[in-house]
Design brief:
Elements lengths: L4 E5 L1 H10 L6 H10 L4 E5 L9 H10 L4 E5 L3 H10 L3 E4 L19 H13 L3 E6 L3 H9 L4 E5 L1 H8 L5 H16 L3 E5 L4 H8 L4 E6 L1 H10 L1 H12 L1
Parallel strand pairs: 1-2, 1-8, 2-3, 3-4, 4-5, 5-6, 6-7, 7-8
The structure holds pyridoxine-5'-phosphate.
Pyridoxine-5'-phosphate binds next to strand 8 and helix 10.
């Protein structure tokens, strides 16, 4: 058993489905197979443009999954209402820009702050665990605590890019380490995600204090060659 939990993001199963407007491959089937293969939670990002997961996926996965569902949403009125209705056990609030290919950075916690605080309060009252997706920066970690979040998810995109390009990643790793340490000190549960591969997840798993990884793109891509079951097991081996 790994000490660090693995959240499997299945958005890109829906991306492949949507590329043809078909009903397959099924995100629900992927969610249930991820569960069977040892995932600790399943993550889906309901985007404003519904480019991958849609509300029917959310409804079906929420009703069938036994492990926690982690719903990623932007802090908007529409997403707040959907999350209040569906009551996922875990919610991660992320920034969202229409033109971006993926979630490019952490939240700006100053932007529409009172609305963000209101979203967090309402979702917490609705019994969802709230995580904020932030840059590895101590100010944002402290601010997440002020906003009464339960968890922070540290955006690891820059760190992963440096590793992929075989560049020096030591400074970025140090930033992540400092952010994790402060999060733990403030009693926030610390997660990490974005761009993670076997290699980058393994390096980060050596940092004490990260409780959960959320991994999608590389994991789903690798599953084409090895299958979801073997890929999840290999990730779990790498982060234990
Ligand atoms: N965590 C968060 C908050 C994300 O927005 C994403 C991307 O949707 C991920 C983790 C997973 O990133 P990747 O697909 O690059 O593994």
């Amino acid at each position: 058993m790994s000490k660090i939990r693995l959240g499997v993001n299945i958005d890109h199963v829906a991306t492949v489905r949507n590329a043809r407007g078909e009903s397959y491959p099924s995100p629900l089937r992927a969610a249930l197979l991820a569960q069977k293969s040892g995932a600790d939670s399943v993550t889906i990002h309901l985007r404003e443009d519904r480019r991958h997961i849609n509300e029917l996926d959310l409804k079906q996965i929420k009703s069938k999954l036994k492990i926690p569902l982690n719903l990623e949403i932007a802090a908007t009125k529409e997403m707040l209402n959907i999350a209040l209705k569906r009551k996922p056990p875990f919610i991660c609030i992320v920034p969202e820009k229409r033109q971006e290919i993926t979630t490019e950075g952490g939240l700006n916690l100053k932007y529409r702050r009172s609305f963000l605080k209101n979203v967090i309060d309402k979702l917490k009252k609705n019994n969802s665990r709230i995580s904020l997706f932030v840059e590895p920066n101590v100010h944002d970690i402290a601010d997440a605590k002020n906003l009464n979040a339960d968890c922070v998810e540290i955006h690891t995109g820059k760190f992963c890019n440096l590793i992929n390009k075989k560049k020096n990643y030591k400074n970025e790793l140090l930033k992540i380490q400092k952010a994790v340490d402060l999060g733990n000190k403030l009693d926030l549960e610390v997660h990490a995600g974005h761009g993670l591969t076997y290699k980058s997840a393994k390096i980060l798993s050596k940092i004490k204090g990260i409780k959960e990884f959320n991994i999608g793109h590389f994991l789903i891509g690798e599953s084409i060659f090895s299958g979801l079951n073997r890929t999840i097991k290999e990730f779990k081996r790498n982060i234990k």
